[in-house]
Every structure is written in structure tokens, then in C-alpha cells.
């Protein structure tokens, strides 16, 4: 009798917070409404920042130039939204809808971790009360969309890596595929999670034959396909690919030399990490409780940030801090107790304090705060 | 009652031992079977292989004081048969054989000729009867021979006679012909008088159909993926079933020119975990296929296997053979396997649990299909990728969305009463399984899936693959034509959601493959001769076609990866990238199917089985090549 491998993995799968679709939509709506309302209030005071203004301008160009406008349409998802709306308010609204999806994912993740309520509340404050977060929400819609999709991807990644849920891997891949169409910097996310494929293959699938390549493809294929498809379409209609990226970014210039660039960006990363105590605290707890491969996987975004900055991707520190804090919050181990809980709680409290006391990207964020 | 019945069995057992027909130990074993089923000891002994069936019935004949008749040597008198319906002959277990010189009608039966029974038979015949004894298998065979034309006619035309609108005997109905003719005229006129506009409309319409079909499949698969950890039926559920609780089960195995695999068939179906006394395996052999018939006899199948010869006649199709099998089936439930199938041993029990958990509207459950010769060559790999996403994500997604499920070729488990009510399979439809699933859905029944797998032999030859695939696609086209004869009626009976899902799935599948070559043409022209398209298609139409092609192909490649990953066929995942080349074969098969639909709609392109070079012993997830 032939015995092919069973399609069912042995790992128990955590139930989602609610399997009821309508309840999930109610929560998304419950997140989206206050998020949008507060964002619009802040936007009303500060006005649209340079990044969203540029996006709106490109949206208008894409709309008015027809197929020649494809030249200005990367990243296509936010640019498409920008081409439909007439002002920054609707752009921010669209970003908040993406944010609501990510918000539900964070809520689910915290719920599944069974943390004390006070710690949940502190974590949410650390993320949502931070000026850096609201800066991103109101000033950089493309980054917010990309970051929201990254949160969905991380959730899928954790389900895939820790709970053996195949769907999680595909959610990761699809979210990354959409993210690279929202924000060029999402390529960094895609590279980060793809780089984790061998670690997952070792820790989760015991290095079964072919699993590393398979995992790599699961994570990377949608992002690669999305970028390649866009490049083809843009090339087909304009004769060149990624015009906006080349116009906005100074890629692969390595001013001062390769090693000097990497050293500079590594020091920059130090500042970002110090502003992200939640990420540090969770890293310490993971180092004590999880296999080395998982810890390495957790630290991979740091390497990706350095590489991304070094090659010239414009990923502001403020966004890097939001990324690391969210990543830390989503990766807190389940039912932590004793010293682990103290470490994480200390990290969260410190995060709340630093969120106001030591701003990341101080020029950008302080200027924005001054305009409020 | 149980004690009495057992006493009767014990007494009969003792008599059989006394007659020197069986050993006392066999009787002990048989009594065990009787205790956990309602089977009499004679049948239990036969199912255990301790007693030959004809020996048992000769013993009964002596006990009942009647002569034994060998019906294989004596054809029933056709002049007597019209007084008894063939179905009644099968279910009442008797058949008129001949008229004696004194005018008495001799009937053969396999049940004790009590006075009431003699009276019933005499009343049916309208004259006195004399009883002789035979086996129930011989009665079934005599029915097949005696009512040959009736059985053949019912198998071929039963559905058409009862519901012509559900049969593919007529490929196109008049309104469809008129509609197609109108479309062709409009397109030709458009191409002559407004070439650019017409081409644009065609390209856009094609793109939108392509996009809708691909997106539908993608979303349904994602839904199916959400349920990947819902283990429908566990090993504990199966273990909780006792033999007494199990109903009778008929297994139909249509075979044609498959002498090379028939011995394997006996081995694989013999491994099914189901009490043999409640299992009836009907090997359906074609009348003109002497070689397979001889091979089947040489394989010496166990007593619960019956070799059933299907009367020769057109259409010579698998569904016709299955209809004949359904006519003779005694089981409460029924499943179809192909000759080379290797079902999970507990599959029948899982199906029983699934039926018992669902309501009476559940007509059928489908097991997953996959392949045991996965890594034999590139084609078997691509085929496995396709099956993995289809059966592991697509069908569960359709199931959880309560959408119509097109049944796969084998491993469909039915409630026999519902199957008969549905009219069996359409012998004129070359994907009778998909058609039946849709028909069941349209008539308010449901089809589900079970977490059990049947391993089949993947096609390793391109030529053979195209033959098989062109038949499947032709069958899908037939199914679309049948169920869209009266679209408002389909919407009324199945509802909007199901009707649209049917159109996107059964109609969309062939259409995407038919539309792929024109879209690829636009892609390559766009790539190599961009200016050539400028005068033909507007930029936005080219853009739409390209976006569709890229998005559609990427989405389907990713689905393919998902299926392989879930099946833990990790080494197959990179092969998903070659799917566009595999879909070229689909397109070739689709155009062949379209041509055959017009020229030979009912022709059954037979797929050759048993051509794999992978040995059964080494075929598994790590299938090794043996050259």
C-alpha cells in the first residue's frame, strides 16, 4: 500500500480570536472609526506632509497622463488610491482602513498570548499613543499600507513557523506581495522574512528535503511576481521600469564606500533599537526560552534594515521604530510569567516613556508635532 | 431473537460440518461474523472463503428438498421473462427458467421456498411453479443475460428517457444553436465591418472571463485553506464504528483493456478495512474485453468480488458500465474506484461517518485523489501539483462555501437510494462524475469531502495525458451545455450563488484554457512587436490583457505551490513555476476537446493505465524511480 505523507501537520493550531466573520468585521470597524477620526483631527491641524503631497501629485499625474502616467504609478496601490481621491483626507482614510486590518491582527495576537490585561493595555498604549505612530498614519499613507501588510505577514509567518499552519505561510507571501506594491521599502520586509526560510526549515520541518526552497518560494514568490509584473507593465508602456524609485532613491551608491556605509547604518540601527525597548525585552525573553533558530529569525529584521539603508532605501527611523515595536508586541511568548513578565513589562513601560521623550527621526516628527 | 438466530446458525454450522463441507474451526469463525452482523452462517462461511458458494447452495437445495440448477449452463426462457420485472428478479432473488412439458414453470431462487414464497412466485407468473435452487450470483448473472437488452437500454437511455434535459445525448439544444449562430454571425460581421472594435471587445471579454475564473478559484482555495486543520473524521471516529453498525457497501470498479492492472486491483481493494460480509465489489468488465475478463478470473478474487460483464453497445463509456453496476448493486452505499486506485484502507468507514454526520440531503462524499508515482517525470510532477491544490484546497473550499462540487473521477461515495433517484450517471457525458455532482447540487442535494485519499497512477505520457485531459474538458463543456439549457431554471433550483459558481468553475475552466493562447499571443506581440498591436488594440485593452495574464498566471502558480506544500511534497513546490508550460498542454487539450465536442461528442478517449515504471512497493511520497 502506498503511503504518501499525511497532509495534516501534528502541531495544534491556536483558534483565532473569533471565527465569526461578522464579529471580525465589527472589530475592524471599531478600530477604523476612532483611528480615522483621530487621524483626521491631527491632519486638520498639521496638514498633509511632503510625502503624502508627493503621492497625491503622482496620483494626479497618473490620472491625467493616461498610460504614460504609469511612469509615476509605482508603488501602484497607494498611487491608484491617490489618483482616485482629491485630497489628503481620503488618502489618510484609505491608510486607516489598512491599519484597521492590521489592528485586528495585533488584537488577535495579544489575545492568543493570554497576557495580563494591564500588559495588553500598556502595549497598545506603547504603540498607539506614540507620536511616531500617528506621524506615520497621517503623513505617510504608502508606508502605513506597507507596514499594515507587514503586520499581517508577520502574523502569518508566526502561524506558519510556530504552529505549522500552511495557510500562514501563504498569508505571509500574499501580504508581502501586496506590500511591495504599496511601499518600495517593503522589499526589505520580503527579504527579511525570506531570509528566515532556512531557519524555519530547520526548526519547524527538521530540514526535510526540499523544504528550504519550498519555504523560500512560499514567502518570496508573490513579491517577486508582483515586482516583475509591474516592471514589465511599466516597461511596456513607458520604456523603463521603476521610474519613481530611481527618481526618489539613490540606490547602490554606497557613499564613502561599502563598509563605511554599512558601519554608518549599523550605528543608525543602534539608535533605532534603543528607542524600541519592547523589541529588546521580547528578544531577551526569546533568547532564554526559544531555540536559537527562532531567535535568529527574530533578529533578522535588524540585518534587513541595515542592508536596506545601505543600498539606499529611504526607510525613516520613525518607521523602523514602529516596525520593531510592533514586531516585538506580536512576538511576545505565550503566558509569560515571573522574570520574563517583569522584563517585558519593563520594556513596555520604557517604551511608553521613550515614545514621547526620545523621538525617532526627530526632524521629521518634531516638525510635524510643531505643526499640530 | 438473537439467541434464536444464533441457534439456527449453530445448527446449520453443525450440519455443514457433519456433511464434511467445512471444518468446525471455520464454523466458529463464521459464528463470530454472524454475531457482529445480520448475515446467515452460510454467507459468512462463503465470505471467509471457507466454503464455495455453489457448494453452499447445493447443500441448501438438498435441505429444502429441491433440485439445484446451474444457471450458467441454462439461459432463462425469454418468453417467460416479461412477466417479471428485472429489478424485482434481483431484489426478490428469483427468476423464471423454463417451462416443463406439463406446463409448469420452473423458477430458480436462492432463498428458502416457503409456501408464501412459492405462492408469490406463482401469482407473479400466473401459473403453477416448480422451484429449483441456485446461487444469488447466478441469479444476477441470469438477469444480466436474460434482460440484457433491458439492462443495456436502461443503462444507456434511462436518464435521457426520464429527464432528457439532464442528458448530454443531445449536445446542443435548438436555442443554444440559435444563440451560438447569432454570436458567430455578430463576431464575423464585426470583424468585417469594425475590426478594431470587435477585436477590442473580444480581448476585453476574454480577459474579464479569464480574470473572473482565476479569482474565483483563488478565493475558493483560500477559503479551503482556512479549514486545513479541520480534521473531518479522526481515527477515533473510525475506531468507534463497530461491524454491526456498518451498512452494506458496494464498490464499483469499471475496467476496460486493463488486464495488466487487474491483479493489483484485487490486492488493493482487498486491503480495504471493511467487513467482507458487508462488502460487495463489482468488477465491471466489457463484454468484448476477453483478455481483462480472463486476467480477472486468473487473479482469483475473494468471494465478495463479483465479475459483472457489461453488455456490449453504444455508447461504450464508463458511466454506462457504472449504471449497469448500479442496477445490480445491493449495497446501501456505493463507491467507484478505478482499476489502479489505492484508497486509504479506512476510506469506506470515513465515508460512513461523514454520511451519518450530515443530513439526508448529502448525496455524496468525495475523497481526495493524489498520485503514487509523483516523481516519475515532469508530467507526473505537474499532474500531482494540480491534483494537490484541486482536492486539498479547491474542493474543501467549495464544500465550506456550500457551492456545487464537480466530483472527481473516482472515490465518490454515494447513498445508493439517492443515486438511483438522481438517475445514475449520464452515459453520454464524458465527465459523468462532474455532471452528477452538479446535477445533485441543482436538485437540492449536497456533495461533501472527506479527509481520506485515494492514490492513483499519474499519467506519464504526454500523448496519453492529452487524450485524458481533452475528454475531461469536453465533459466540462458538455456539462455546461446541459445545465445551461435553461439558465432561469438552474438559478431557480440551485440559487444565484451556486449557478454563478457553476458557470465560473465548470465553464470557466475550459474557457481559461481556450483563452490562454490569445492572451499569450498578445503578451508575446507586446514583448517583441509592440508597434504591431497599436493599430489593432487600444493601449488600455492591451494593458488589461497583460495584467490579467500576469496576475492570473501568478495566482495559479501560487495556488499550485500551496497544494504541494500542504501535501508536504516540498520538492514539488519549485516545479509550480513551470505551470505556464503545463497549461500550454491544457490549451492543446482544450482545443482538441472543442473540436471533438463538435465532431464526436460522445466518444470516450480511453486513458491507458498501468504504464508507470515506478513499482508499487517503492511508490510513496518519496517515490523512487525504477528503470
**How many helix segments of chain B?**
24
Radius of gyration of chain B: 27 Å
| Helical content class of chain A | over 70%
Domain unit count of chain A: 1
Q: Secondary-structure element sequence of chain A?
A: HHHHHHHHHHHHHHHHHH
Oligomer: heterodimer
Which two chains form the greatest contact, residue counts included?
A: A-B, 37 and 50 residues
- Count of spatially separate domains of chain B: 3
- Total E-strand runs of chain A: 0
Radius of gyration of chain A: 21 Å
Instruction: Please summarize the sheet with the most strands of chain B.
Output: 8 strands, mixed
Overall mean confidence score, pLDDT of chain A: 84
How many individual helices of chain A?
A: 18
Structural class, judged by helices and strands of chain B?
alpha/beta
**Termini gap of chain A:** 72 Å
In terms of DSSP E residues, the strand content of chain A is under 5%
Binned, the helix content of chain B reads 55-70%
Q: Which blocks of ≥5 consecutive residues of chain B have pLDDT under 50?
A: 617-627
Q: What's the overall geometry of chain A? A: globular
Briefly say what this structure is.
The complex is a heterodimer of chains A (372) and B (627). Chain A is an all-alpha fold.
What are the defining features of this structure?
heterodimer; A: 372 residues; mainly alpha; 18 helices; disordered N terminus; B: 627 residues; alpha/beta; GMP Synthetase, Chain A, domain 3; 3 domains; 8-stranded mixed β-sheet; 3-stranded mixed β-sheet; 11 strands; elongated; disordered C terminus
Amino acid at each position: 500500500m502506498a503511503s504518501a505523507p499525511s497532509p495534516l501537520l501534528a502541531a495544534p493550531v491556536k483558534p483565532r480570536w473569533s471565527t465569526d466573520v461578522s464579529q471580525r468585521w465589527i472589530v475592524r470597524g471599531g478600530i477604523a472609526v476612532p483611528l480615522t477620526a483621530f487621524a483626521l483631527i491631527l491632519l486638520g491641524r498639521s496638514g498633509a506632509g511632503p510625502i503624502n503631497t508627493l503621492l497625491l501629485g503622482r496620483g494626479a499625474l497618473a490620472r491625467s497622463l493616461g498610460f504614460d502616467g504609469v511612469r509615476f504609478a509605482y508603488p501602484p496601490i497607494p498611487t491608484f488610491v491617490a489618483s482616485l481621491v482629491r485630497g489628503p483626507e481620503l488618502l489618510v482614510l484609505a491608510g486607516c482602513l489598512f491599519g484597521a486590518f492590521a489592528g485586528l491582527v495585533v488584537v488577535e495576537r495579544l489575545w492568543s498570548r493570554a497576557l495580563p490585561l494591564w500588559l495588553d493595555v500598556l502595549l497598545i498604549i506603547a504603540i498607539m499613543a506614540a507620536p511616531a505612530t500617528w506621524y506615520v498614519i497621517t503623513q505617510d499613507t504608502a508606508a502605513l499600507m506597507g507596514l499594515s501588510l507587514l503586520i499581517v505577514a508577520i502574523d502569518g509567518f508566526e502561524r506558519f513557523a510556530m504552529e505549522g499552519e500552511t495557510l500562514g505561510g501563504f498569508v505571509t507571501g500574499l501580504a508581502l506581495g501586496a506590500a511591495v506594491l504599496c511601499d518600495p521599502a517593503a522589499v526589505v520586509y520580503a527579504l527579511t522574512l525570506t531570509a528566515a526560510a532556512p531557519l524555519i526549515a530547520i526548526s519547524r520541518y527538521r530540514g526535510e528535503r526540499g523544504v528550504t526552497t519550498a519555504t523560500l518560494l512560499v514567502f518570496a514568490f508573490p513579491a517577486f511576481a508582483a515586482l516583475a509584473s509591474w516592471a514589465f507593465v511599466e516597461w511596456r508602456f513607458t520604456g523603463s521600469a521603476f521610474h519613481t524609485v530611481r527618481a526618489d532613491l539613490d540606490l547602490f551608491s554606497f557613499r564613502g564606500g561599502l563598509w563605511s556605509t554599512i558601519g554608518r547604518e549599523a550605528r543608525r540601527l543602534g539608535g533605532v533599537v534603543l528607542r524600541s525597548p519592547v523589541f529588546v525585552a521580547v528578544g531577551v525573553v526569546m533568547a532564554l526560552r526559544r531555540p536559537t533558530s527562532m531567535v535568529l529569525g527574530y533578529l533578522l529584521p535588524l540585518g534587513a534594515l541595515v542592508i536596506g539603508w545601505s543600498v539606499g532605501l529611504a526607510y525613516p527611523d520613525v518607521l523602523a521604530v514602529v516596525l520593531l515595536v510592533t514586531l516585538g508586541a506580536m512576538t511576545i511568548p505565550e503566558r509569560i510569567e515571573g522574570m520574563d513578565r517583569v522584563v517585558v513589562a519593563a520594556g513596555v513601560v520604557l517604551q511608553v516613556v521613550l515614545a514621547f521623550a526620545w523621538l525617532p527621526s526627530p526632524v521629521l516628527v518634531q516638525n510635524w508635532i510643531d505643526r499640530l | 431473537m438473537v439467541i434464536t438466530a444464533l441457534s439456527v446458525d449453530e445448527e446449520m454450522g453443525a450440519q455443514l460440518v457433519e456433511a464434511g463441507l467445512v471444518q468446525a474451526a471455520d464454523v466458529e469463525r463464521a459464528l463470530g461474523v454472524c454475531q457482529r452482523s445480520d448475515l446467515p452462517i452460510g454467507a459468512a462461511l462463503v465470505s471467509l472463503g471457507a466454503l464455495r458458494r455453489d457448494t453452499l447452495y447445493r447443500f441448501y437445495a438438498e435441505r429444502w428438498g429441491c433440485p439445484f440448477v446451474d444457471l450458467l449452463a441454462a439461459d432463462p426462457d425469454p418468453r417467460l421473462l416479461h412477466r417479471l420485472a428485472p429489478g424485482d428478479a434481483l431484489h426478490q432473488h428469483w427468476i423464471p427458467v423454463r417451462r416443463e412439458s406439463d406446463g409448469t414453470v420452473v423458477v430458480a431462487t436462492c432463498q428458502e421456498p416457503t409456501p408464501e414464497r412459492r405462492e408469490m412466485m406463482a401469482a407473479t407468473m400466473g401459473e403453477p411453479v416448480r422451484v429449483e435452487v441456485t446461487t444469488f450470483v447466478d441469479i444476477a448473472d441470469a438477469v444480466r443475460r436474460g434482460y440484457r437488452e433491458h439492462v443495456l437500454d436502461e443503462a444507456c437511455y434511462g436518464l435521457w428517457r426520464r429527464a432528457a434535459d439532464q442528458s448530454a445525448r443531445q449536445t446542443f439544444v435548438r436555442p443554444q444553436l440559435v444563440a451560438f449562430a447569432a454570436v458567430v454571425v455578430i463576431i464575423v460581421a464585426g470583424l468585417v465591418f469594425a475590426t478594431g472594435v470587435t477585436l477590442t471587445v473580444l480581448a476585453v471579454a476574454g480577459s474579464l472571463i479569464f480574470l473572473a475564473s482565476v479569482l474565483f478559484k483563488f478565493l475558493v482555495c483560500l477559503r479551503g485553506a482556512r479549514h486545513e486543520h479541520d480534521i473531518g473524521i479522526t481515527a477515533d471516529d473510525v475506531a468507534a464504528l463497530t461491524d454491526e453498525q456498518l451498512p452494506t457497501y458496494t464498490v464499483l470498479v469499471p475496467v476496460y483493456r486493463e488486464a495488466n492492472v487487474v491483479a493489483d486491483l484485487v490486492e488493493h481493494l482487498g486491503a480495504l478495512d471493511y467487513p467482507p460480509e458487508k462488502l460487495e465489489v463489482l468488477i465491471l468488465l466489457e463484454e468484448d474485453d476477453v483478455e481483462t475478463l480472463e486476467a480477472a478470473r486468473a487473479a482469483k478474487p475473494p468471494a465478495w468480488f463479483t465479475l459483472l460483464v457489461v453488455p456490449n453497445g453504444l455508447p461504450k463509456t464508463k458511466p454506462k458500465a457504472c449504471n449497469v453496476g448500479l442496477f445490480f448493486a445491493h449495497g446501501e452505499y456505493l463507491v467507484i474506484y478505478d482499476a489502479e486506485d489505492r484508497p486509504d484502507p479506512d476510506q469506506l468507514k470515513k465515508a460512513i461517518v461523514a454520511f451519518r454526520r450530515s443530513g439526508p440531503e448529502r448525496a455524496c462524499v468525495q475523497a481526495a485523489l493524489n498520485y503514487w508515482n509523483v516523481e516519475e517525470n515532469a508530467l507526473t510532477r505537474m499532474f500531482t501539483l494540480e491534483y494537490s491544490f484541486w482536492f486539498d484546497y479547491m474542493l474543501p473550499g467549495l464544500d465550506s462555501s456550500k457551492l456545487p462540487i464537480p466530483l472527481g473521477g473516482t472515490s465518490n461515495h454515494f447513498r445508493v437510494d439517492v443515486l438511483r433517484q438522481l438517475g445514475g450517471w449520464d452515459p453520454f457525458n464524458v465527465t459523468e462524475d462532474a455532471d452528477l455532482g452538479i446535477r445533485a447540487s441543482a436538485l437540492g442535494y449536497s456533495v461533501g469531502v472527506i479527509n481520506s485519499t485515494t492514490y492513483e497512477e499519474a499519467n506519464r505520457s504526454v500523448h496519453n495525458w492529452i487524450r485524458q485531459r481533452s475528454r475531461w474538458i469536453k465533459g466540462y463543456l458538455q456539462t455546461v451545455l446541459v445545465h445551461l439549457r435553461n439558465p432561469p431554471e438552474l438559478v431557480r433550483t440551485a440559487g444565484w450563488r451556486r449557478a454563478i459558481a457553476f458557470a465560473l468553475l465548470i465553464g470557466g475552466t475550459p474557457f481559461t484554457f481556450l483563452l490562454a493562447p490569445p492572451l499569450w499571443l498578445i503578451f508575446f506581440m507586446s514583448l517583441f512587436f509592440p508597434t504591431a498591436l497599436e493599430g489593432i488594440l487600444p493601449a488600455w485593452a492591451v494593458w488589461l490583457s497583460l495584467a490579467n495574464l500576469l496576475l492570473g498566471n501568478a495566482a495559479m502558480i501560487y495556488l499550485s505551490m500551496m497544494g504541494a506544500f500542504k501535501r508536504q511534497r516540498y520538492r514539488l513546490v519549485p516545479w509550480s513555476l513551470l505551470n505556464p508550460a503545463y497549461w500550454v498542454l491544457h490549451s492543446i487539450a482544450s482545443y482538441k476537446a472543442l473540436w471533438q465536442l463538435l465532431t464526436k461528442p460522445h466518444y470516450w478517449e480511453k486513458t491507458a493505465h498501468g504504464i508507470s515504471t515506478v513499482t508499487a512497493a517503492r511508490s510513496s511520497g518519496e517515490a523512487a524511480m525504477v528503470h
